Amino acid sequence: MRAFGSASRLELLRAMQDPRQLDAAPGEVSEHGVCLALLARTVGIAGPTALQHLSKLIEAGLCVKTADRRGGGFTFYRRDENAITDVADRLRHV
What we know:
- This protein is of the alpha+beta class.
- The chain has helices spanning 7-17, 36-43, 47-59, 81-92, and strands spanning 29-30, 33-35, 63-68, 74-79.
- It has a single domain, classed as Orthogonal Bundle (Arc Repressor Mutant, subunit A), CATH 1.10.10.10.
- It has a 4-stranded antiparallel β-sheet.
């Protein structure tokens, strides 16, 4: 639940929900997810700050980090929809 305690983390999750809606440069969105630079720019925070927030979301199991080896080894992030649905279901039953 602490992962939801930050407005920036919630904004990062929202940004990853539908990456096609983001103002992305070529290569910033792929089937692997959304790159760190685009997420930081979208939320309006510095890259290192975005990385700290994403690390908390990964630790909480709400998002995953992937690498697109064909695209030069960039790191992408995407939501774990199953984990988010599980949390939402549990909250409905509280």
